[in-house]
Design goal:
Length: 274
């Protein structure tokens, strides 16, 4: 079920609450996945499978900003939220991605309150920030009314990624920055920063994430988190994560392909043994 009570994967246009408003609700439990293959068919398949959101990965996926409008349109048509994870936090990059009409941005390697303030500033129109306005982009409906500045500021979510020791040390300051809608935890990079590379399920990493989520909850800020498995996603959703980003399109497709071939091999082996 989607946040508005409609099935996530019915491939119909739905009217949804702005993502920023949804993430402000402590009862929110959205399930997303990373999209690294920039195909609208995959966006629709993920929506049809029941995901509430997709996070288009411009940091690690071969996705160009020019491909975003079609992917965003496919996601919105299918009734899911569409976010973009950026590879950099420059104002021009943030503004260009937001012009495509995404519901939110996930901004990497935020290590201080100043980093968080700069990110929010780049994502909000004046007077809340310094985002540049072009009325002829998709996010503005190609012909912006005056209300666009207000609705964009009220609706577009800014999620900042805490992935290292500096970010952990500055977590309370980061969470206090006005306009930060959620802190997105990257357990893979976090495990490396804790001296446990490639071990996001190590007890030390898990305890660090639990502590982080508790501190964010006390600050009234939502948590987003990458979850490699359904077990991890269920664990962090029970702990209060408002956006659990489960696996990635490539990982799930690869696992499905392998299972299908292995099933065929097993059936052929059974047939020969009879």
């Amino acid at each position: 079920m989607g946040q508005d009570g409609t099935p996530s994967g019915d491939l119909r246009v739905t009217t949804r609450r702005p993502l920023r408003e949804v993430l402000a609700d402590p009862t929110t439990r959205l399930t997303a996945t990373f999209l690294l293959i920039p195909r609208l068919e995959l966006v629709e398949l993920l929506a049809n499978a029941g995901f509430d959101a997709v996070v288009i990965d411009l940091e690690h996926g071969p996705v160009a900003v020019a491909e975003l409008p079609g992917l965003v349109a496919a996601g919105h048509g299918a009734g899911v939220y569409v976010l973009a994870r950026l590879g950099e936090r420059t104002p021009a990059t943030i503004g260009g991605v937001l012009d495509s009409g995404v519901d939110g941005v996930v901004l990497p390697h935020v290590d201080s309150a100043d980093d968080a303030r700069d990110a929010v500033d780049s994502a909000r129109f004046p007077p809340e920030g310094s985002r540049s306005l072009n009325p002829y982009v998709r996010a503005a409906g190609y012909d912006a009314a005056e209300s666009f500045l207000t609705t964009a500021n009220a609706g577009v979510a800014v999620l900042v990624m805490v992935e290292g020791k500096d970010g952990l040390a500055a977590l309370d300051d980061i969470a206090s920055v006005a306009g930060v809608d959620a802190v997105f935890v990257g357990p893979v990079d976090l495990s490396a920063s804790l001296g446990l590379p490639g071990e996001p399920e190590h007890p030390v990493v898990l305890e660090t994430v639990r502590d982080l989520m508790e501190r964010l909850a006390l600050a009234g800020v939502g948590t987003g988190i990458y979850c490699p498995t359904p077990d991890a996603a269920a664990r962090w959703q029970r702990a209060g994560a408002r956006l659990a980003t489960l696996s990635a399109d490539i990982a799930m497709a690869s696992a499905g392909f392998r299972r299908t071939v292995e099933e065929l091999h097993d059936l052929n082996t059974e047939g020969r043994s009879r």
